[in-house]
Amino acid sequence: MQLSVVILNYKVRFFLEQCLYSVQKAIATIDAEVIVVDNASSDDSCAMVRERFPKVKLIANAENYGFPKGNNIGVAEAKGKYLCILNPDTVVAEDTFTKIFSHLASHPELESNLGILGCKLIDGTGHFLPESKRGIPTPWVAFTKIFGLYKVFPAISLFNRYYAQQLSENQSGPVDILVGAFMVIPREVYLELGGFDENCFMYSDDIDLSYLSLKSGRTNYYFHETSVIHYKGESTVRDGMYIKRFREAMQSFYQKHFRKSYGFDVMMRLGAFLFSLVKQSQQRNRTINSTKTIVFTRDGLQLQAAHPVEYYKELADLTTALAPGERVVFDTRSYSFADLIQFMEKHCQTGCQFRNYLSQFEGIIGSDHANDVGGVEFL
Predict the structure, then answer these.
(1) Are 195 and 208 in contact, with CB atoms under 8 Å apart?
(2) How far, in whole angstroms, is CA 244 from its chain's centroid?
(3) Exposed, middle or buried: residue 303 (CB in 10 Å: 0-12, 13-18, 19+)?
(4) pLDDT on residue 264
């Protein structure tokens, strides 16, 4: 078997369903399996998987074991040569995996020494997520991130390492750290490295695994030729518990790999605390009050709205510029996820909303900002 897709779910039933539909299409021509590990969700995620995806291997945990242990449980059941660690609040393109395996096949030197491969991630508005590629968060690199120096001096290597700005978002190449929302890794490498560190409940696990891969002499690689939507934050409310776990995670990573002195430890504790406060302040409701809805459908989708609604059969038929306050709804029965992702990236600067219609639960789903919790509107 070539690929095992491992998805750890926690209370995001509808985002998980959309994710599984996209994965189902993406592995259609690949010898692959899908494993969903549910961390004791209180919604009907498990019932949905059993009913609608009977070929998916479901592991229903009795309690929330956190990100590292949950994924390790899934990997223990995997049989693929490669693993894809995938968040449930993602949408992959139909050709995501075929592009990746084709690239590896044409670059044997990379394939033979691959540690972890990541791809271009975008949020629900089509904007590139810079954490798709990062540098090792040494004390100095963490300092440039916490105090925003990477924004002030983006072209100077001394300051631009946190988001691996030596590579543009549209340039593939080796990087240090990749994000746990989408990781392709040889299963043997994952097991050799010991998987995700279960001493950390969440947040620094992907940094730790990436760093262990580097230390083993392997190549971590950012692949820009496929884009994946990562809505982010769907199962994470940035409350007091978020701050506590984020701070503990960063402290755990630094103590494991960079512990130097008491002064260093104090600086890192303060930095992690300030960073988590910034993250908490960024999460707020940014939902747009729509002034117009544009619906792309070839299958007769009709929406009711208090504002004007325009219908188009082809994505290329839209000739007027999109504007803030407008909502774009894609009928996923009519178009590929790859086409929708490409459209979102092309129009990400317009300030409009993007929503996907899924007939399976008669709703539209999406998010308006990387720091927002998105949602579903049922029709």
Answers:
(1) no
(2) 22
(3) middle
(4) 54
Condensed to tens digits (0 to 9), the pLDDT of residues 338-373 reads 999 999 999 999 999 999 999 999 999 999 877 667
- For 86-100, letters b (16+ CB in 10 Å) and e give bbbbbbbbbbbbbbb
State the DSSP string of 217-276. TPEEEEEEEEEEEE---TT---SHHHHHHHHHHHHHHHHHH----HHHHHHHHHHHHHHH
Per residue in 9-65, pLDDT (tens digit) is: 999 999 999 999 999 999 999 999 999 999 999 999 999 999 999 999 999 999 999
Comparing 15-24, 87-96, 315-324, the range with the smallest average pLDDT is: 315-324
**What is the three-class DSSP state of 26?**
helix
Helix (H) or strand (E) holding 295: strand 292-296
**Which tokens hold the place of 43?**
């919604």
What does the CA dihedral 90, 91, 94, 95 come to, rounded to 10 degrees?
-50
Distances in whole angstroms, Cα of residue 303 to Cα of each of 23, 288, 370: 27, 17, 26
Around Cβ 111, how many Cβ atoms within 10 Å? 15
* Cα–Cα distance for residue pair 185/210, rounded to 1 Å: 10
Q: Does the CA dihedral 135-204-187-39 come out positive or negative? A: negative
Among 293, 338, 331, CA closest to 314? 331
Torsion over CA: 267, 271, 277, 278 (sign): positive
Evaluated on CA atoms 285, 288, 289, 290, the torsion sign reads negative
Q: Provide the 10 A C-beta neighbour count for residue 163.
A: 23
The token duo for 149 is 């120096």
> Could you give the CA distance from residue 269 to residue 189 in angstroms, rounded to a whole number?
31
Are 9 and 74 within 8 A, CB to CB? no
Q: Are 82 and 213 in contact (CB under 8 A)?
A: no
